[in-house]
Amino acid sequence: MSAILAKPTPVRTEVAALWRLSWPMLVGQLATVGMGVADVAMTGHVSASELAAVSLGASVWSIILVTVMGTMMAINTVVAHDIGAAQYGRIPHVVRQSLWKGVGVGLVACLVANLSTLVFDHIGLTPDVAANAAMFVHAISIGMPAFACYRALYGYTTSINQTKPVMVIAVLGLLFNVFVNWLLVFGNWGMPKLGGVGCAVATGVCMWLMLGAMLAWIRIAPAYRQTYPFTHWEGPNWPEIGAMLRLGLPIGVTYLAEVSAFGAVSLMIARFGVVQVSASQIALNFSSLVFMVPLSFGIGLITRVGHALGEGDAVRARFVAWVGVAMSLAFALISAALIAVFRWEIARAYTSDPAVQELCAHLLLFAALFQLSDATQVATSSAIRGYKVTRQPMQIQLLAFWGFAMPVGYVLGLAPSWFAWSPAVPMAAAGFWIGLVLGLTVAAVLLTWSLHHLSRTRAKA
């Protein structure tokens, strides 16, 4: 009887498989986001103005960074399908072309990042905060080409079930980043005291070191022999790059729709002063850290769904997709409870300013509230991408965040006099956070319906 009870069910088997694939990516994602957390947390103990500058610079930078990450994610789906179909000989070519794509995308992103600093002169910031925020972006942008190429190799290695490298390299990168932050932010060991700009220098250099480490790992590890991409030189193949851009750009725009909404919130809150923008950015920063768990499940889902579809098994792909969504929801329930209970401790870990702590603890209640919808939307959209469908999630995210979240946040946060249903007094950060909760909920509902329709249609075909 005990043997029967202990027999693994299909759900338990799939949960175990997705967890084995996802947990190293989770550690790696947490370490990568931990760099941003360290930047904000360490500058928060320098001064409120330095924290505001880094917060604003990081808001603009993260919009570009996440857009690049999404644009480069096409390789995840393509390689996963090739693995499922046992077309191993095609993978080296795909990786080489994805790297060429990464070079181009990275250079364009670097240019956009530097031009974006012009916005700091037009949003009511004090001159010193605007100048420091711009310097932060200028310094950190040196790492963007390396980051784009790293994400190409990231997608390749995770899609062939080799996730340990992304974990080890990211953890080492975080340790390097924190140590150099300690040197440059506070001027320890005789180094110049650069404040927030020191964080940017550390992160930019770290991105190049992480790319070098990934190239070395692929060169040495036996697991890459069958699909090793660097056997010979290959120039850019524009039709292949164009096909990956058509698949990847909608993912990039999808990520842009969400992260730009969060970034725009920080910029619009800036007019209410340092306390409001700092508290909001801390809450956003911690929320992005928690978000790495369902995001890692989502990246794993792209691989699992892609493998099943590559094998021609649409029924299993549907099953895999919904198990992944359920795992994300289970985590969301836990994270929501923990954020609500420990919101004051979280705020104190980031800053010693009592006013910022109080407002941050309040905003973290909104972060706890949107955990379920946030986890649902990232899991469902990732599963849909496993089907090589990327335009529909893009359209839904644009509608949810820029059709619902931002208009509602603008009305509640700023209380414009021309709008009849504006509150009597601007709700500032809290009003924008209510809009974000609404946007995430709309995205979750629409993407869940989309995945249900798509997976059922393919399974019946």
Automatic annotation (TrEMBL):
PANTHER family: FMN_FAD EXPORTER YEEO-RELATED (PTHR43298:SF2), MULTIDRUG RESISTANCE PROTEIN NORM-RELATED (PTHR43298). It is found in: Cell inner membrane. The keyword Glycoprotein does not apply. The keyword Ion transport applies. InterPro entries: MATE_fam, MATE_MdtK, MdtK-like. It is a multi-pass membrane protein. This is Multidrug-efflux transporter. It comes from Massilia violaceinigra. One of its GO terms (biological process) is monoatomic ion transport. It comes from the Bacteria. One of its GO terms (cellular component) is plasma membrane.
